[in-house]
Amino acid sequence: MTFAEALLYSVVGIAVVFFALVLLMIICKILLAVGGEKKPEAAKAEAPAAPAPEPVREPAPGSAGDIKLYDTDPRDAAMIMAIIAEELKTPLNELRFKSIREVRE
Prior knowledge:
Helix content is 52%, strand content 6%. The protein is mainly α.
C-alpha cells in the first residue's frame, strides 16, 4: 500500500465517522422536536423546591441513644450487646452502650 492509498483510506474513514456523528445529531434534534422540548422558563417553574431539612429524630422508646462503632460490623455489635445483656440478666433497653471498638492484639 502506498502512502497516497493510506492517506485516502484515512480521509474516507474520518469522513464516515463525521457523517455518522452528524446523522446522530439530526436524529437527536428530530426526537427532541417530536417529544416536546421544555423551555428553560417552564422547567424552572416546574422544578420542585429544595427539600426540607430532615427533622431531628428522637430515639425509640426504651432506647439509650446512639452508639459509635469503631472497626466493628453492626451485626457483631448487636451480638455483643445481646450477650452482655444476657450475662447481666438485664433487659437490653436498660443498658447504655456508648461505643464498641474491636481490640486487636
